[in-house]
Amino acid sequence: MEQPSPRAGGTLTLRAATDAPRFRVEFHRCGDGLTLSAKSPWLPGADAPPHLPAHDWGRDGTGARGEPLPAWPGHELPAPAEPGVYVAVLVEGDDDGDRTDPDRTTPDGREAKALFVVRPAAPSARILYKLPLFTYHAYNVSGGWCLYDHPQPGDVPGAPGVSLHRPGGGTGATPYDVTNFDPYDPTPRQTFVHWDGRFVAWLARRGYPVDYCTDLDLHRDGEELLAPYRLLVSAGHDEYWSDAMRAAVSRHVAAGRNVAFFGGNTCWWRIAFRDAVTFERTGFWHEHGPPENELTGVSFRNGGERDRDEHPEPVGFRVQHADHWVYAGTGLRDGDVFGLEECLVGYECDGAAFDRAARPPRVPTGEDGTPGGFTILAVGDCAAAGWGLGNRAATMGLHTRVGTAFTGTVFTGATTDWPRGLDGSAAVARITANVLDRLGEPPLSPSS
After folding, report:
1. Which of 65, 95, 120, 331 reaches 20 to 30 Å from 394, CA-CA?
2. Where is the signal peptide (predicted)?
């Protein structure tokens, strides 16, 4: 999909290579399940070879051995009229009709699918949900490599960068760590269906009005994109951030608006674009820029990773400050644990450094860059389960930036698997609703 987020009622360009004489495209809207929105007419099929991962596959290129690589054929199609998250499903055909019958019950697939967002013609909600397109592509191995197994610079043209203009980016390709299975969820990590799909479905069931965008929209449009919204939401695994993204979100909070990170390993890698569609790593944010926890309040440096099922003991969050508005209606008390049955903490999580020898409630030391006003509302002790980095504890919490005229709040759930808890844990669902309702509401007027 050449435009990952066309406007409602506009056009989009789909590029596809197939050995079938013709194909058509179905657009399915993602909510509480998939809803067929539109179908294209039959389109002429044409084959084309894979390009290298750093190439724009919509342009002629050159392969690793100097061979010419023709551009993948493009087809301009009307974008769906209703804003939301969509998956394009490609159906191959011939003179006898359909040759393929793709699975239409899930947005996930290793081929013949493409994820995209339809943005409204004008903002239509107070909440903006951002899909982590850059993280999807960082793990996407279409063309031969990704940012986790790339050749050395100079060995192959374009390495180590990766392009947004190639198959994949949430669905339609294979993620690098597809073999790093989640013992609690059979869907592949680093795909839309694993984390974001769950959150999008929950929002739809709860009836939340939400607009959607991608990383690329935030990177390109920055403050102009965010200005109409009270709350920016990110969930799951939002690992790759550009300077433009970081600056725009920081200014969003400084202007008195809010952010909710229902995920972990957030803002870990700093990236830069070498052209309009190809990006590469420049280093970890905490080593090559202001540390990520200056924005998020937490860092992977003090949380860590539970791979596969090497540490099967589940980890939940232990409550502190149970009288905080985040816990309203949960019935939780200080010392209670939630999310244990859902194995909520992991597979990657973020934490704020605190003194483990001190008695609860835990208080950040600030030695790792966590803002002084960050309040730890719950602790997930990874160390007790045998894994983790640094302080080895996920810390759910928030901080509020108080200025002369504006007050903006940043909430963090501090674990990638927060979306999985939405359907299994009443506490996770209620905390999520409390955050969305409180931080997504209009600000009080000066006379209130």
Report:
1. 331
2. none
And the tokens for 301? 């440096």
Identity of residue 146:
C
Residues 6+ apart with CB under 8 A from 329: 430, 434
pLDDT, tens digit (0-9, with 9 covering 90-100), for 189-198: 999 999 999 9
Token couple for 165: 């203009």
Q: Give the range of the structural domain holding residue 76, as residue numbers without chain letter.
A: 1-120
- In what side-by-side order are the strands of the sheet with 162-163? 162-163, 278-284, 269-273, 240-242
DSSP state of 315: -
CA dihedral 227, 233, 237, 240 (to 10 degrees): 10
pTM of the model: 0.96
List pLDDT tens digits, range 254-285.
999 999 999 999 999 999 999 999 999 999 99
- Shared domain check, 304 and 387: yes
**409 secondary structure, DSSP code:** E
- Domains in the chain: how many in total? 2
- Distance, in Å, from the CA atom of 297 to the CA atom of 123, rounded to the nearest integer, reads 28
Same domain for 353 and 302: yes
